[in-house]
Amino acid sequence: MSKKLTEQIFTIMEREMSDIGNFIVKKQCMLIGADPEDIEPRDLPELASNLSEVMRTFGGYEKARIIYSEIKKLENLDQVAAEEKSEEKRNKMLEDLGMTCIFSAEWDKAFEYFNKLLSEAEMNNDKTQVSRYTRRMGFIHQERSEFDQALEYYEKALEAAEEAKDPLTIGQACNRIGGIYWNKGNYDLAKEFLERAIENALKVDDKRILGSAHIGLGNIHGDGHEMSEAIEHYQDALTFLKETNEVYETARAYNNLGDTYLQLQEWDKALEQFDKCREYGVKGGWLNMKAWAEFNSSEALIHLGKLDEAKSNLADSLEILTKIGDRVGLGGIHQNYGRLYSIQKDWDKMEEHFEKAMQIFTEINTPISLAEVYTEFGLGLKEKGDIDQAKIELRRAANLFLHLDIDVQVKRVLKEIENLD
Q1: What CA–CA distance (Å, rounded) separates 266 from 413?
Q2: Domains of the chain with CATH codes
Q3: Which residues, in sequence order, are CB contacts of 64 under 8 Å at separation 6+?
Q4: Pick from 55, 87, 102, 313: CA 20 to 30 A from residue 72's CA?
Q5: pTM of the full predicted structure?
Q6: What's the DSSP call for residue 84?
């Protein structure tokens, strides 16, 4: 039966991801300790979670939902979990299924899984687990850009963690809260909670939290144009993450470090970081990170006068991301094409690609990215001399940032609008 199950999983992924489908399955099997040539029903909850996360990252919620729907046809996953005799393993399966529902945007079902786990933890007065599952429920709201609701759950998670006096769980909750305040543009509180996450993570030597929190602090300093501090935090993040198996986070740290060097106009250093991002992306099977490194490097190449190489990188990454259906990445590529053609003052192509980016980010519901494209499009129109249309796009950006409660970005965009008068 398991051999047949293996073939069925491969068939599903081949249909959705062409010739790289089997590669993704094998990579994720290895990460969870399953035999990629002999997948068992008990492997499916965690494997479904991992595959859904990959597919969500590559192609958005709809892509993840397709994969999860197909896997659910193979086995009754709730029954697989129910038949598990070990309570610890059974709860892990239910949590994996809850996370799968988050990645595939099945929000109500995700709440159902975590409510069940939360009720059991509360009945057992297990504050550490109460914090864990409450944190997961906050993540559901965060994925929906419902930052205020997410914050409520994360604060409840922190309260339970403090009652448990568990530094690890406190660190995890503080890390999440810091991320929410960063999204909301409240950098002082974001920094406070991320530093508290680091303080608690150091007590238990949890390098995952340390790496993630330092990336968060790097982002804060980067947004504040405090580049030396941002670089220091990204480098600290890499020091910790390289001692873990968090390949994706390592790639992300290199990518953010590369972006920082772009802002400093240190083009060669930026390219070095994007090369590392690409390396770790390939290592972890995150082909989207490889492609992102390609198109992010194009900005440095443009400024180095290597326009043909920049366009080649964009074309290569476009081919990869189209093949794997990474709509998030495709939106980013069109955004970068818009930047390139804005620099080249090819206004028609600039507008074409910014509009494609806006269309994608609207369809996959990533409002922060959409607001950033509105901003860049507005600034490009300003360079073109189309002041009236520039104001329209910048107002769209300001309104969306206002809706998301990102005050820092609202003020930045409003200042750009003011400068147009």
Answers
A1: 26
A2: 1-118 (no CATH), 125-244 (1.25.40.10)
A3: 52, 53, 55, 56, 100, 103, 104, 105
A4: 87
A5: 0.79
A6: -
Q: What is the DSSP letter of 41?
A: G
Give the pair of three-digit tokens for residue 309.
């190489």
Residue labelled with tokens 């900005």: 299
Q: What are phi and psi of 165, to 5 degrees?
A: 55, 45
- pLDDT tier, 1 (very low <50, low <70, confident <90, very high otherwise): very low
Cβ atoms 280, 289 nearer than 8 A: yes
User: Taking 70 as the threshold, does the pLDDT of residue 40 lie above it?
Assistant: yes
Residues 343-356 pLDDT 10s: 889 999 999 999 99
Q: What tokens were used for 121?
A: 């933890």
Kindly state the average pLDDT of the residues 43-66: 86
Q: Which of 287, 290, 218 is nearest to 256 (CA)?
A: 218
* Contact by Cβ (8 Å): 390, 420: yes
The mean pLDDT of 3-18, rounded to a whole number, is 87
CA quadruple 97, 102, 105, 109: dihedral sign: positive
For position 324, what pLDDT does the model report? 66
User: How far is the first Cα of the chain from the last one, in angstroms, to the nearest whole number?
Assistant: 70
Q: Is the pLDDT of residue 57 over 90?
A: no
The mean pLDDT value of the chain amounts to: 91
Query: How far lies 152's CA from each of 146, 319, 342, in Å?
Result: 10, 41, 42
109 exposure class (CB count in 10 Å sphere: 0-12, 13-18, 19+): middle
Count helices and strands (H / E) in the chain.
Answer: 22, 0
**In the numeric block, which tokens belong to residue 387?**
């002041």
C-alpha to C-alpha distance for 374 and 401, rounded to whole angstroms: 10
Per the rule left: phi > 0, alpha: psi between -120 and 50, beta: everything else, 125 is: left
